Amino acid sequence: MNQSAPLQIVFKNIHKANSHTLPVYLKGGGYKAMAEALAKTPEEVINEVKTSGIRGRGGAGFPAGIKWSFIPKSSTKPKYLVCNADEGEPGTCKDRDILRFDPHLLIEGMVIAAFAVGSERGYIYIRGEFFLESQRVEGAIREAYAKGYLGDNILGTGVRFDLAVHLGAGAYVCGEETALLESLEGKKGQPRVKPPFPANVGLWGGPTVINNVETLASIPAILEHGGGWYAGLGVEKSTGTKIFSVSGHVNRPGNYEVEMGLPLKRLLEEYAGGVRGGWDNLKGVIPGGSSSPVLGKQVCETVTMDYDSIARAGSMLGSGAVVVMDKSVCIVRAIARISRFYRHESCGQCTPCREGTGWLSQIVTRIEAGGGQPGDIELLEELCGNISGRTICALGDAAAMPVAGAIRAFRDEFVYHVEHGRCLVE
């Protein structure tokens, strides 16, 4: 991995004045990669993305090129491309910056992706609270249509791609791709049973590719410089750059685009300005959004920001939302707050999630309030085991993993709460 200053692939225009406008984007080389891609065959574009090794930046980490290759070459129904811009994971705020400051980068990436999979229609599903972001994207779409980058016969190539924005209603579960499709179709946003998978039966029954904003925004650079170039960034099985949303007890919170495989300690110390009160004041870090288990300080000393390293440490890279907690934080109180969120956001379709998230929240909240009872910790662990892997989508796992992970890393705090009826942290 290159330890020098990171290349700006996604955030290359973000610091420019009026970066969301077409003239600024074109001045920075915008839409050149699209023109080059449209001169290739769809198979060549897909192979370039496969070679890059880029994995989905929304949380699941599935290789984008392989996902595109699942789309059948011939279909009796239209093919669709959908951008997941819901970004509901607590702690995550990277996609909204792309939407707000560089929407043309996303549009260019979507045109390339649509050409690769044979789609003539695309949608950007944006979280309803992102009002300014949706306005910026819609303005960029109008600019792109006016210049011939969208619509019929793009750049005289005969390629057609139409793009529209759809605003969601702020449901966390609609970040799950099949729940997103249900919402996009005008139905209640609840996950579908799989199979069939969206690649075969997606939006309105047609083959559908669904990718995250950051994933699609990385595609122009891959086509411009080549998949091999991108694969040379980062580390094996975690190539390229990644935007990490660092929040909590650091001196300089924000979004940072760095090469994958960067040590977590370096991300916090060199980029985010250090932990409040110094590194020794660090208590734990949630490395991939609220659904990922918290890591204790000792693990944070050596773990690197890539899929395999975080998994070996017992957590997930997820969306890349890094939440830093210093020693003033009561872990039980933090987990109680997270549990309330997942209880509220459960769509209620699956019994283990509908009932389990409620019980998790009730028990953790009772422990935090001083009403803990002997056996509560073991009951929480049993509940987490009964929820995980037993639901249609991953929301149940997202609710269970933070609780199980916190007990694993900070069991002493839970025990103290139960035995003394108060927080270990004064």
Total strands: the figure is: 11
The CATH homologous superfamily of the largest domain is named: NADH-ubiquinone oxidoreductase 51kDa subunit
Q: Level of helix content?
A: 40-55%
- N-to-C SSE series? HHHHEHHEHEHEHHEEEEHEEHHEHHHHH
CATH class of the largest domain: Alpha Beta
The overall average pLDDT, rounded, is 95
Indicate the CATH topology of the largest domain: Rossmann fold
Number of domains: 3
Structural class: alpha/beta
CATH architecture of the largest domain: 3-Layer(aba) Sandwich
Query: Order of strands in the sheet with the most strands?
Result: 8-7-11-9-10
- Which residues form runs of ≥5 with pLDDT under 50? 1-5
- Terminal residue distance: 42 Å
Tell me the strand percentage band: 5-15%
What key phrases describe this protein's structure?
four-stranded parallel sheet, globular, Ubiquitin-like (UB roll), 3 domains, 18 helices, alpha/beta, five-stranded mixed sheet, 426 residues, Rossmann fold, disordered N terminus, de novo design (two linked rop proteins)
Structure, explained:
This protein is 43% helix and 13% strand. The relative contact order is 0.12. The two termini are 42 Å apart. It has three domains: 22-232, NADH-ubiquinone oxidoreductase 51kDa subunit (Rossmann fold, 3-Layer(aba) Sandwich); 240-326, Ubiquitin-like (UB roll), CATH 3.10.20.600; 331-420, Up-down Bundle (de novo design (two linked rop proteins)). The protein is built from 18 helices and eleven strands. Strands 8-7-11-9-10 form a five-stranded mixed β-sheet, with helices on both faces. A four-stranded parallel β-sheet has the order 3-2-1-4, sandwiched between helices.
